[in-house]
Amino acid sequence: MVLHPVITEKKTNNPLGFSFNPAYFTDYQIDKITLTHKVFIMSTRRPIKQIISQGVISFFILLWVYAATAKLLEFDQFKVQLSQVSFLKPMAGILVYIIPLVEYSLAGLLLVSKTRSMGLLGSALVMSVFTAYIAGMISFSPDLPCSCGGIINNFTWQQHLIFNLLFTALAITGVYYRSSTNPPHS
Q1: What is the average pLDDT across 86-99?
Q2: Rounded to an integer, what distance in angstroms lies between the CA atom of residue 128 and that of residue 136?
Q3: How many whole angstroms separate alpha carbon 113 and alpha carbon 128?
Q4: DSSP annotation string for 131-163
Q5: Tell me, what's the pLDDT at 142?
Q6: Cα dihedral angle (105, 109, 110, 113), rounded to 10 degrees?
Q7: Is the sign of the CA dihedral 157, 161, 162, 163 positive or negative?
Q8: Which of 43, 61, 77, 124 could form an SS bridge with 171, CB 3.0 to 4.6 Å?
Q9: Domain boundaries, the chain
Q10: Which residue has the higher pLDDT, 67 or 14?
């Protein structure tokens, strides 16, 4: 029994409104029986690295805007929690403004095409700093509440550390894929 693939291009109407055209059909003829296997190829035809990079960028835009907004909406609580950390206490009055500003700035950098690489690098750096801070909190002040705001406030320190490690890795992955799909300009 021999398979004879015949590839034909057929336009299809997608009722969901997604851009899947052209859709490709591979017809396999087996002893006068035809089996059709439908394979969708996204019309963007972008390399997977570029798709991953754009997904990471989009995610971090949402993360930074959410985190900064949550801190500002719970500003008094954020300020009190930061001032409870002994080594942050002298800087708590300024950090309550700087941290949301940095998070909004990173989201802004990620929104603009020319500054996305800088935004991803900044995201990786800030996530690394936040991860080191959480590791320090686990080691030295495990009883203090998290000052991150929003739903992340409900995490234990260990869950928060895992969350930050994953998203630090995600930011580094975004930097890598962004740099491999967008080489520096000469």
Answers
A1: 92
A2: 12
A3: 23
A4: HHHHHHHHHH-TTSPP-S-GGGGGS-HHHHHHH
A5: 75
A6: 160
A7: positive
A8: 124
A9: 4-40, 48-181
A10: 67
Residue 170 DSSP label: H
The token pair at 31 is 């002893």
Question: To the nearest 5 percent, what fractions of the chain are helix, strand and coil?
Answer: 60, 10, 25
Write the burial class of residue 57 (CB in 10 Å: 0-12 exposed, 13-18 middle, 19+ buried).
buried
Alpha-carbon gap, residue 70 to 63, rounded angstroms: 10
The fraction of the chain above a pLDDT of 90, given in percent, is: 43
Tokens 């949301």, located at residue: 100
The position carrying tokens 């859709």 is 23
Task: State pLDDT tens for residues 33-76.
Answer: 444 433 333 445 567 888 888 999 999 999 999 999 999 999 99
Residue type, 103: E
Output b/e per residue, 71-109; b: 16+ Cβ within 10 A: bbebeeebbebbbebeeeeeebeebbeebbebbbbbbeb
Contact at 8 Å (CB) between 130 and 164?
A: yes
